[in-house]
Design goal:
The protein is built from three helices and five strands. With 90 residues, it is of the alpha+beta class. The protein has one domain: Hypothetical Cytosolic Protein, Chain: A (2-Layer Sandwich). The longest helix is centred in the last third of the chain and has 14 residues. The termini are far apart.
Length: 90
Protein backbone atom coordinates (compact mmCIF):
# COMPACT_ATOMS: atom_id res chain seq x y z
CA UNK A 1 0.00 0.00 0.00
CA UNK A 2 1.86 3.03 -1.25
CA UNK A 3 0.20 6.18 0.03
CA UNK A 4 1.26 9.58 -1.22
CA UNK A 5 3.05 11.95 1.09
CA UNK A 6 0.68 14.36 2.81
CA UNK A 7 1.11 17.96 1.64
CA UNK A 8 0.60 20.49 4.45
CA UNK A 9 -2.21 22.98 3.81
CA UNK A 10 -2.43 26.52 5.20
CA UNK A 11 -5.11 29.19 4.97
CA UNK A 12 -4.35 32.55 3.34
CA UNK A 13 -5.15 35.46 5.69
CA UNK A 14 -6.29 37.49 2.67
CA UNK A 15 -8.58 35.35 0.53
CA UNK A 16 -9.19 32.60 3.11
CA UNK A 17 -8.46 29.75 0.67
CA UNK A 18 -6.65 26.62 1.78
CA UNK A 19 -3.54 26.10 -0.35
CA UNK A 20 -0.35 24.08 -0.25
CA UNK A 21 2.09 25.52 2.26
CA UNK A 22 4.80 25.88 -0.42
CA UNK A 23 2.55 28.14 -2.56
CA UNK A 24 2.13 30.69 0.25
CA UNK A 25 4.45 33.23 1.84
CA UNK A 26 4.96 33.02 5.59
CA UNK A 27 4.74 36.23 7.58
CA UNK A 28 6.36 35.90 10.98
CA UNK A 29 5.94 37.62 14.33
CA UNK A 30 9.27 37.28 16.11
CA UNK A 31 9.70 37.01 19.87
CA UNK A 32 10.53 40.72 20.11
CA UNK A 33 7.24 41.58 18.35
CA UNK A 34 8.56 42.59 14.93
CA UNK A 35 6.87 41.43 11.72
CA UNK A 36 9.05 39.96 8.94
CA UNK A 37 8.68 37.74 5.86
CA UNK A 38 10.11 34.28 6.49
CA UNK A 39 11.42 33.06 3.14
CA UNK A 40 12.63 29.72 4.55
CA UNK A 41 9.44 28.96 6.46
CA UNK A 42 11.48 27.52 9.33
CA UNK A 43 12.23 30.47 11.63
CA UNK A 44 10.94 30.45 15.19
CA UNK A 45 7.85 32.51 15.91
CA UNK A 46 4.15 32.80 15.20
CA UNK A 47 3.43 32.50 11.49
CA UNK A 48 0.63 33.60 9.20
CA UNK A 49 0.38 32.71 5.53
CA UNK A 50 -0.59 34.83 2.53
CA UNK A 51 -0.77 34.29 -1.24
CA UNK A 52 2.09 35.95 -3.14
CA UNK A 53 -0.19 38.55 -4.72
CA UNK A 54 -1.12 42.12 -3.89
CA UNK A 55 -4.89 41.53 -3.86
CA UNK A 56 -4.62 39.14 -0.92
CA UNK A 57 -2.49 41.65 0.99
CA UNK A 58 -5.15 44.32 0.38
CA UNK A 59 -7.87 41.94 1.63
CA UNK A 60 -5.78 41.08 4.69
CA UNK A 61 -5.43 44.80 5.42
CA UNK A 62 -9.19 45.42 5.04
CA UNK A 63 -10.23 42.43 7.13
CA UNK A 64 -7.41 42.92 9.67
CA UNK A 65 -6.09 39.42 8.96
CA UNK A 66 -2.65 40.04 10.46
CA UNK A 67 -4.14 41.65 13.57
CA UNK A 68 -6.28 38.55 14.16
CA UNK A 69 -3.44 36.12 13.47
CA UNK A 70 -0.94 37.84 15.74
CA UNK A 71 -3.42 39.24 18.30
CA UNK A 72 -1.80 42.69 18.19
CA UNK A 73 -2.19 46.03 16.42
CA UNK A 74 -0.36 46.21 13.08
CA UNK A 75 0.90 49.58 11.86
CA UNK A 76 0.23 50.73 8.26
CA UNK A 77 3.99 50.99 7.66
CA UNK A 78 4.31 47.22 8.18
CA UNK A 79 1.72 46.59 5.44
CA UNK A 80 3.63 48.98 3.15
CA UNK A 81 6.87 47.13 3.86
CA UNK A 82 5.21 43.77 3.19
CA UNK A 83 3.82 45.13 -0.08
CA UNK A 84 7.33 46.12 -1.22
CA UNK A 85 8.75 42.74 -0.27
CA UNK A 86 5.90 40.89 -2.02
CA UNK A 87 6.60 42.89 -5.19
CA UNK A 88 10.27 41.85 -4.99
CA UNK A 89 9.35 38.17 -4.52
CA UNK A 90 6.49 37.95 -7.02
Amino acid sequence: MATGKKIPQRQCIGCGQMKDKKELIRILKTQDGSIVIDATGKKNGRGAYICPDEECLQKAFKTKGLERSFKMAIDQSIYDELKKELNNIG
